[in-house]
Amino acid sequence: MSPKWLSKFISFIFMTAFLASTLTGCWSRREIETLGFVTALGVDRTEEGEIEITVHIAKPFAVARGTEGGVSTEKGFWTVSSTGSTAFEAMRNLLLQSPRRPFYAHNRFILIGEEYARAGVKDILDLFARNGETRRLARVEVIKGSTAKDFMQQVEFELERLPSEGEEGISRSVEVGLSSQPVECTLNSFLQWLETEGMEPIAVRLELIPKKPDAPINVGELLREQVRASSKHGGAAVFKGDKLVGWLDETEMRGVNWVTGKVKSGILVIDQPNEKGKLVSLEILRAKSKFQPEVKNAQVSVTVKIEAEASLGEIQGTLDPMKYPQAWTEMESQMAEAIKREVMAAISKAKELNSDIFGFGAALNRKQPKEWASLKDRWDLEFQRIDVKLEVEAKLRRMGLVTRSSEPK
């Protein structure tokens, strides 16, 4: 080997040895058996003013016994709470009670008690935004009339071993649009709404539904003896900035979704045109909408255009659309009026709470930024005076497999 190649070979050996010495291996590894997987997290404030964190930690050995063909009566999760001067301290204090280090990468829900939400949620969400373990796809939900701790201590679902799986199943139904009444809100979307001019955040509204009101609070603490309470989704929690200011019911929330173009499916109930006192159920097939704000003569107005299609899902009484052709037009007209009522109910409630949950201000900022610059400082007043012009086009596309109602002979 020539001296030149020998020099290159020696240099290569030294470089390889140097690079190898800088590799530290899996220095930050965490063995799975040392981790406690958090599936849901709740936030409250104690009477002493401290932050209280409550978590569900999955018990994999209990869940596995229930899914391997055997029957396990043991609860598949552990509920534990801790407090601290800050949320970060409260989360770290969980280590004083848990034999496994809480791991938040699998956390699906951030549950916030009503009292805490009314005081402001910015600080707690700042923690989750900075925490590298917490995913921004975690859903933000507010508990109406209860604390997150009480909710998490009681709520279970008959069809799922983990409460988070039950909540996830209901949320999936919402996402595919089976009702179009609740709101879809993740940590990421809430933070985006919070920082957008002319847009206020909304979050999922949850309610505690007691099933065994006489059962003690700690029933089934270790064994899954009975479901003490379950939860109900629907409507929304309305915020002004980062503070909870009120609630929307299911109808009002779908009114918001009509305006923002998020209605995918659902049921509309209208009067039967041929028989008084009878009803017709329409299944929403598809919908789209757009709104356009503008400023004229110092008056802000918004034109909302909605197009919706539906099919006949159920007819009470007797109706033959072939013999009563005007029934089709009457039902389309009633469908349009039903949509208008839902939209106007949502707008009325938003004005009452003085919260622009539709993003009218944000849309005005995009279209007429100069006008928005002069209006944004007094948008609270202008939003309550805003003139909404609603245009709805409703179409019935299908009548199902049956053309007329069955008649007894």
Short précis:
This protein has 409 residues and is an alpha/beta fold. The chain has helices spanning 3-22, 60-67, 87-93, 114-119, 122-130, 148-154, 163-175, 187-194, 250-260, 326-353, 360-367, 369-375, 379-385; strands at residues 35-45, 51-58, 77-84, 101-103, 109-113, 139-144, 202-210, 229-240, 243-248, 267-271, 279-296, 299-315, 387-398.
Structure description:
Helix 9 packs across helix 10 and helix 11 (360-367) crosses helix 12 (369-375). The strands form two sheets. Strands 1, 2, 3, 4, 5, 6, 7, 8 and 9 form a nine-stranded mixed beta sheet that branches. Strands 10-11-12-13 form a four-stranded mixed beta sheet, with helices on both faces. It is globular, with a radius of gyration of 28 Å. The protein is built from 13 helices and 13 strands. With 409 residues, it is of the alpha/beta class. The chain has helices at residues 3-22, 60-67, 87-93, 114-119, 122-130, 148-154, 163-175, 187-194, 250-260, 326-353, 360-367, 369-375, 379-385; strands at residues 35-45, 51-58, 77-84, 101-103, 109-113, 139-144, 202-210, 229-240, 243-248, 267-271, 279-296, 299-315, 387-398. The model has no long low-confidence stretch (mean pLDDT 84). The protein folds into two domains: 32-248, no CATH class; 250-398, 2-Layer Sandwich (GMP Synthetase, Chain A, domain 3). It is 34% helix and 29% strand.
